[in-house]
């Protein structure tokens, strides 16, 4: 189904079973998913890792978005990162290129958004103020802080990836 004629996700009404206080988080993630899939539907795999002017590539942003959502979900549940999550984080930090296509990276992001939505549906509003530690240093946050950061971080990278994709696409023409 095309979403081009629909209003932005946040203007389509509440999402079923998502607690009211985290509706904006769900709306932002769904908006990002729609925009990424629409704007990158025909993005060439050969341009995925191009870094115009040394900025992060489209591939990095897609990989990073998926990884960050995964990690923030883990922290919000009050769990430590797994060795696999730590390895993925290290690969992101050092610019290791994951194998895959634009479609595969978009699919991985789509799936992570679904995992995050499922977690939002399970979130008890009484738990939103519960403290959570972030990272090895266990920096202080809360369940709500982590969930809101997931939304704002996703939207920040959405803007970056869309601009980078446009620049890379213009250079390829």
TrEMBL record:
Segments forming domain DinB-like = 29-161
**Xref: Pfam families:** DinB_2
What is the name of the protein in this document?
DinB family protein
Q: Give the species this sequence originates from.
A: Hymenobacter elongatus
């Amino acid at each position: 189904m095309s979403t081009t004629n629909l209003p932005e996700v946040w203007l389509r009404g509440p999402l079923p079973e998502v607690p009211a206080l985290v509706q904006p988080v769900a709306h932002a993630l769904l908006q990002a998913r729609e925009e990424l899939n629409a704007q990158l539907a025909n993005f060439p795999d050969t341009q995925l890792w191009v870094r115009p002017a040394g900025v992060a590539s489209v591939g990095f942003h897609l990989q990073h978005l998926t990884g960050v959502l995964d990690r923030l979900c883990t922290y919000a549940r009050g769990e430590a990162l797994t060795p696999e999550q730590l390895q993925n984080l290290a690969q992101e930090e050092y610019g290791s290129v994951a194998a895959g296509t634009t479609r595969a990276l978009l699919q991985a992001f789509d799936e992570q958004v679904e995992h995050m939505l499922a977690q939002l549906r399970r979130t008890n509003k009484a738990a939103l103020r519960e403290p959570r530690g972030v990272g090895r240093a266990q920096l202080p946050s809360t369940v709500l802080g982590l969930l809101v950061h997931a939304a704002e971080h996703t939207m920040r990278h959405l803007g970056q990836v869309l601009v980078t994709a446009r620049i890379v696409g213009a250079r390829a023409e």
